[in-house]
Amino acid sequence: EKWAATRPKHPPTNLALQHFDATYSAQLGQMWPSVRCALLSERKYGALFNNFSQDALLEDLEAQGCRDFISNIETEVQPSDPADGDAVYQQLSALQLSPNIRCFVFPRGDISRFKPARPDQGGFLGYYLMDAASVLPCLALNVQEGHSVLDLCAAPGGKTLALLQTYSIGFLCVNDSSVSRTSRLRKVLRSYVPKQHLTNEKIRISTLDGTKWGEIERNTFDRVLVDVPCTTDRHSVLEDDNNIFSKIRTGERRRLPQLQLQLLQAAIEAACPGGEIVYSTCTLSQNQNAGVVEQAIAWARENHGIQLEVVDLRPLTHMFRNTFHFARDLHLGEMVVPHLAANFGPIFLCKLRRLT
Amino acid sequence: QPAHNNQGLDLLSIQSESDLDLSLHSLEQMGFTETQAEHVCAVFSQFRGSTGKHALSTITALFVLGLNAASMLKVFEKCPELYTVREAQLQQRINNLRKLGFVEGSLQRVVVHYPQILTVPAKKIRNRVAFLHEKCLFTMQQVTGILRDSPAIVMENIDHLEYKFQYVYFRMGVKQAEMVKSKLFRLTLDEVRNRHCFLERRGLYETPDKNGQTMIINPKLDSVLNCDEDTFLKVAKASAEEYDVFKRLVEREWQQQEQQLGSFGAD
Ligand SMILES: C[S@@+](CC[C@H](N)C(=O)[O-])C[C@H]1O[C@@H](n2cnc3c(N)ncnc32)[C@H](O)[C@@H]1O
């Protein structure tokens, strides 16, 4: 073993860490060391259960010691919860979650890993491994029977897959500006979803610049998911390849909040009045999260006369508080904060409803 | 040979009656209480036969060293193999420790604390000392300190020892004096790495650059290593749950790294 430094002096992962040390220690205070350590350690996955697969995997997964964190909330939510229990319990019934989405996770503190999914007789995979917290934006989207849904930045397709599990979408528009990533998304869909669910009447896949969507299709969709490109904090501190903190991508990184704003603006325009938009990222950065949402709300009101309401997601976070660590007291949106014992996230989500 | 107490003198005279057997009576004569003597005989009986004949000379040597009956009992319990060591060897090993700087008092303490040290050939100990002095550049005084605080290193695998030293020297940027103070060699490499990496990932420890500079102030090695886990968790500002999960995670990480290195080596 050699200890002499042979690595480049400023690998992007180091630059990312330095940047986060500066911004997040101010933003998260005392919590930052704990979050930092979680970011730098192995993450936990969730197994998004594929309802289209014929394999009898449920028993198998349960035998391994994991559980569907979404359907298991019954035992977690105690109406006798002394704090704000009753009020929240009432809100829970109001909050209809997208049905049929199931996601298995190993219990808190359990570091077991999932085996790679295997194809069933029909060639479809039994589950899709993703950050379990990524399911939350899909749940929050609250898709109802017959809805038309736009997934504006969809590749590689984890959240698209989660949305398809609901079986209730009327028409789904799947978009991503990257050609290569969109072809990955097509591959994912083909490995999980039978052809009859991917017909032109049901789904449309496009490779457009999402920021232009407002010019293409306004006031159209009941639901819009806008899962924007961001600093992908976890990736940035661990992988030097394809790292947004590499020197040559500095410009791109600085422009992120602007791009995110434009994508959210487009999503707002694409939604119909009464429609709902979920904005999500996988960064802890305030500039890319609440900052973007605030600007978009002001922009919609001032430039388009669109009134937006921020939907309270506290019932959702309350429901899943035993599975994830949520940031406290965010003034806008909700955020899953990584923690070694429940190493999911970061995921930020904020839900908006178009009143006009 | 110095014999500081009466017991020792008694013993020398007993010993001269060459093939005297080890009996309860003789033990009691040496100053053991009846129960202690029974205890010693019980342990001895396992070593009867060819090896057991050194038992009396071992006891003699330890008496000469100044150990009393109670501490001797402790020694036998910790290290019954001591009975199998020949008298001449035992004397040579004790003298060797004296030469390495163990003065009266500290010599007795190390024997009581870690009697196994007398089962190790003097040559092996001298090699370990040379390694610490010549390769790791500890002063001879520091080496004696290390042997005194962590005598078990005489049994430790030398590659592990070297790796541990290099880890702390290069990776943690800590100099010899601080290593001695922190009683580094009492801990296994895994314990050292766990604590260091935990702090490092939490942003509380940084490897100094070529000039010994860091952006943050590292905690002293002493406060990281020379304490129980609860105290360490205060330094790390972490919960026991986090550290528990962390240890299991990095163990798997390191195992995988080793496997990868192994498979590269095999190519
Ligand atoms: C965080 S990823 C989406 C992950 C995806 N929702 C999932 O769950 O698998 C962000 C995506 O936005 C895409 N993107 C970047 N700029 C875009 C733009 N202007 N319009 C549409 N998509 C864009 C990227 O190609 C990338 O695939």
From TrEMBL, chain A:
Binding sites annotated in the UniProt record for S-adenosyl-L-methionine: 153-159, 176, 209, 227
A Pfam short name: Methyltr_RsmB-F
InterPro entries (UniProt xref): MeTrfase_RsmB-F_NOP2_cat, MeTrfase_RsmB-F_NOP2_dom, RCMT, SAM-dependent_MTases_sf
Xref: PROSITE patterns: SAM_MT_RSMB_NOP
Domain SAM-dependent MTase RsmB/NOP-type, chain residue ranges per copy: 49-355
Gene Ontology biological process terms from the UniProt entry: rRNA methylation
Keyword Cell cycle tagged: no
Active-site residue list: 282
Secretion signal span: none
GO molecular function, one term: RNA binding
Transmembrane segments: none
Coiled-coil zones: none
Localization terms from the record: Mitochondrion
GO CC aspect terms: mitochondrial large ribosomal subunit
Similarity comment: family membership: Belongs to the class I-like SAM-binding methyltransferase superfamily. RsmB/NOP family.
Official protein name in the record: 5-cytosine rRNA methyltransferase NSUN4
Gene name of the record: nsun4
